[in-house]
Automatic annotation (TrEMBL):
The keyword NADP does not apply. Keywords: Methyltransferase, Restriction system, S-adenosyl-L-methionine, Transferase. One of its GO terms (biological process) is methylation. Residues 324-514 form the DNA methylase adenine-specific domain. This is DNA methylase adenine-specific domain-containing protein. It comes from Thermococcus sibiricus. Signal peptide: none annotated. Pfam families: N6_Mtase (PF02384).
Amino acid sequence: MALPQEDTVNVYLAEILSSHLGESSVVIPEEKVRRQGKRRKFDIKIEFKGIEFILEASYNEKDAEADAIRRLEEGLIDTVSIAVHYLPELFNNAQTPAQIKRVLIQNPLKLKVFTQGRDISGTLLEFLQQKREKKPRSIGGWIYLDVNEFGTFLESIVEFVVKEDVLEDLLKQVEEKVNTFVSAALAELENSKIKESFLKDLNKILFSPAKEEDIEVPEVPDEVLLSHAYISLLMASTLYESVSKKHGLRSLQVLLRKEEHPLLAMKEGFTEILKVDYENVFDVALGIVGVLFDLQSSNRVMATLEDLIEYVSKIVRNKALLRQDFIGHIYHKVTGDIATRKGYATFYTKAPIATFLANLALYSPNDAWENNWGDLITFKNFRVCDFACGSGTLLSATYSSLLSKYRKNSEEIFLDQFHKIMIENSIWGFDALEHAVQTASVVLSLHEPEIPLKKMNTYHIPVDESGSLGSLNLWNANSFLLPLKRRSIDKTSKETVWVPKFDFIIMNPPFSRTTAPGEEGSRPRIFDFVVSEEGFRRLWERYRETINNMENELLRRDSIRAIYNTYVGQGKVFLPQNVNPLNAGAALPFIILADRYLKPYGRMALVLPKTVIESSAFFLVRALISSGYELEYIVVSTEPGNYNFSYSTQLSEVLLVLKKLKKGEKPVKDTYIIKFLKQPKNNLEGLLMARTILDKLDGSPIKKAKALNSEAEVYKVSRKTIEDFVWNWSILTDLPPSLVEFISELLSGKIFGYNANLTRILDLDIEFRVTNPRKFRGANLKKYFEEDDGQFRILKRTGKNVMNKLGLDLSSTEKISPKSGESIRVFREYAGRLLIPEAVRFNSTPLVASFSETPILSSRAHMITLNTKDQEKALCAWINSTFAIAYLRALFTTVEGNFGHIYGWHIRTLPIPDLTNERIVKTLAQVFEKYKNKIWKPLPKQYESVINGEDNLRERYDVDILKAITDTPIDEESLEIDLLTLYVELLRIIQ
């Protein structure tokens, strides 16, 4: 008797699976697709908890396996495909629907699982056997599973794929190969006459952004140069092997056998492919090959390059792996690890975060994007840009997210046409480093490497001593000449490029500081790679001119000017020098540049230093966002030790998603705050977390979002709150909503409902001066004082062993003597008794202010001067209250986690008691005297001791502070509950 058609069995299997997986899942059989007139794409597709699975079924084992692998290679599925083998003998007598369903229900399904081009059935089975009480069985590499267990099986697959990252083994292999190459090359170069010139040539190709051949190059550790060289050749070879057959070119393996020399093989192959195109990719690679000829006498070095060619031939067989940004993972993991060890890290976005950010931004509702995402014309007209594209991680994540939109909405999938449109029309990338452009080009090309391309819109715009500012050149013109020089080839081509407006800009701009680090004779850090002073001067002047131009243009906008005038000026939150955008760092001009090139209702998705939402120098950016954008999401990480979203940095970072409005249109929508408790560790978790969060945006109170091992808190803040705190948004991210309410109440002059007679110090009619400690740091101190056993004192440290008493112990200070009468005048003018550290760690400092009975200078703490000693004692007592500490922790400028800076403007905006009220001053000064000699534990220990009932010093202090400033009777029992609640909430953010 004839077997039932496979398509028929697929339909009934889909029905059974649908009933077992529930309403939250979608199961689509291929037969349904064909009835709707669509082209066949799969046997069964399952959307289960936000993840797509494809099932390929057949009576033939090999056909089922081959089809499952092919679906991954074709890009029809990003995650998992499952081969299903129907045992023919089971279906011999099954002809009716009831009979077919009975076979499927009563007999185990025979399955194999594939992801990223690999069969993971064996290791998955071991995982399942450890995890589950009922052990699945396996015969011949196939897993046998009852259909009613299929939902649990899919959940286990996802958990396994996340836990056992299949890329990890490959990454370790590549890391070993890089280390072997670096070791061999260094051994050959040791004591060699060519070492200096060899490394200098590599440096020019990889890290010098300048065009001139005789330009001085920055110092880069030898291991970093060599690791980048190897990875660049690995990337170029991978792309070459992926496309060579398509263009009728011989593989590198064939060329190696012909030339018997790996460098000659690469040179011939890369030169031939350049005649087709791919200039951005093979230009740099050829330059590296040319330099490495100096090491051709080393058998060890040549052996590592022969091994590279052999290894690449294995990599390219797994097309599904190449689509997973495998090259990008290698680039960041291997070169990043080496660079970090050698202190030369370049910051690039973590791949899971890139996936999360791209999906969050592209899948969030946008009326202007209500396009037909199944139509290729939509993608042709949808333009994406990264003005600091680096290795292309963000652009690759965007490509994948847009491809997902296309797959979900298209009746027929034409991946070749989609790829050409994405690379030739839609995606644009710019970078100042040529090897970064090469990496980005490879990463994007490998999504569909066999598709011929006429062009790629990835461009190298140098930052060099001529005054070229890289992508920032685009501020002054949207067309420019790009000099593209092929290393080792006597040819230079120039191309005029018209840069369009974009629908979506995704970017992790450079964070370089524009302030000097403080050492004598130091200069701003932004152009560290520039060696000559003349070159630096030229670049710095051009940069200053660009920043001034940007500032002037923004302040001509009425909406921004209104915000500026509200917060900046004498007697206001900021002084003009506080908000000088020249001090903000390189991220600021890139954001303003992106604003110029973004279409109305387009989106920006940004990876930024956390200082953008809190530093006074970035105030102009916040004014721009607050006046002309819907600030849709602010994303931070509170995961201990993992506050960053980029590789190779410990800096705290933030993600912003913004939608641009038309000129004159006012923002009205609320903002979602997303706090990662555990960041996603791989791309699948990043994808699922974005989808999970989007499902929870219903305006309800704080919600937990969990996707596999990653967790986040999500809550909403009002548009009014965004506007009210435009001077510092970190309060909205660093504090739980309950503490945000507490700070808002504090700003209104109240504490737990009690009238606390609070105001800003600038609003009081008293003498008040804050002296920045930088005034007495390094050369500035030496200008006026000798560091010897003199008559004056200076405080040079403010750690936990210094800031542990309200009354400063003068043994923590050092003696200095004045050099002149002018020095005595300077001391008398600026020395202070009330000291507030400029840099503070809230997880270890006991206090945040200390008082000295005699005036002193400090190179580490702000010196505060008021009319009287008692006012200074009163302010010292207040600043060390939990009420003021919560405010300062919320608003201080974060460097990393609980470490950051307290600036003068933080102090000027701090709500304080009325220091013109004699009663309040007197009672607060009495509180100071009562506690001045107490030795305090670090802040977290203080709060833990109260919560655990061990020591109530902190609680007694805060009660005394509140009693001193309020004229309202206090219910101490109620106050105790309020304080304990406050301590618990505050402890969460300072531990």
